[in-house]
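HOLO CASE FILE
Compound: XIL
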Amino acid sequence: MKLTNIVTLLTLLLMAAPLASAEPSGPLPLRELADRRGFDIGASVVALPLREEPKYAEVLAREYNLLTVANSLKFSMVHPERDRYDFADADFIVNFGLQHGLRVRGHTLLWHKMEPGWLKNGQFTRDESIAILGDHIKTVVERYRGRIYAWDVVNEAIEDSGGWRDSTWFRAVGSDYVDLAFRMAHEADPDALLFYNDFGAEGMNAKSDAVYEMVRGMLERGVPIHGVGLQMHVQLGAAAWADDLARNIRRLNALGLEVQITEFDVRLPMPPPPDSYKSQANIHRKMLRACLDAPNCTAFITWGFTDKHSWIPRFFGGFGAALPFDEQYNPKPAYEAMSQELGREEVRFEVY
Ligand code: XIL
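Model generated. Tokens follow.
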């Protein structure tokens, strides 16, 4: 081969190299598709992998335009001793989100789990408890004023039967604690959207009826509440009640409330049976569609995004693989379904 030809060949190879090594131009990331329709697609985030696994941070920033602080703002994490707050992990997650243009949700100010010993075992009077509540909410919410745009103020206050759940706050203050917490949060950040969040209240049942009645009462009393968070930790078979979800979202819309799907995951029995990834994808599709089709459903958030860091295997023995990315961060059929739904043209039927 002549020298000039070799030089030409080498030049061509060098020019082609960056092209060959670039990412294949595949479908758009979820966040891009969501942005185009003014919708929020999110995932909850834990501090350790965000600090230590570049891939975790990369996929999060690429695919999502919203994150929820999964654990680092829970009472025991952020307020471990009566006179000491620890914001290190929460700050890290919130700052990451804002630096990458994600909206940030705060989870959660009050919950019957993950309470520090000093609170759980303290024998406080009603007034002392209200003072503790006020200090906690003011300190945490004010710190993130203008940065955390929405809060799960109260988490899981209602039993499946529809009654009040027994908890530290319920015992010390009475059912008024819910109204009080929302009023305090509103005072600490008047611009933040305030949500009541629960599980098992997604479809039409005794629990969602009770949640509906509770928030209706709050609105009547002038309590600042803006939305209901539906957690949606579900299993195979959930596609059957997608219509019930739509009905529930509609009745909350009639009250003027937003809805967000706040903790979506679809746990599979392990090892996953044949076709279960397809059924899982179908549940993602139907539930996301129900949300997208409702004018008041403003965000669809999964509880984590990779099966590598999911709460399911630890909390539901024999189950796993609940999220849209596998343990190697490869997108699963559930991811494809979400991508297709977000990319779907909005069809509006006009009635003449
Ligand atoms: C879970 C976390 O994922 C776990 O890491 C933690 O140990 C316990 O809490 N409903 C909620 C979430 O509102 O806060 C829970 O998160 C899952 C159920």
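CASE NOTES: The CA atoms of residues 38 and 182 lie 27 Å apart. Residues 70-71, 155, 199, 231, 263, 311 surround XIL (CB under 6 Å).
CLOSED: yes
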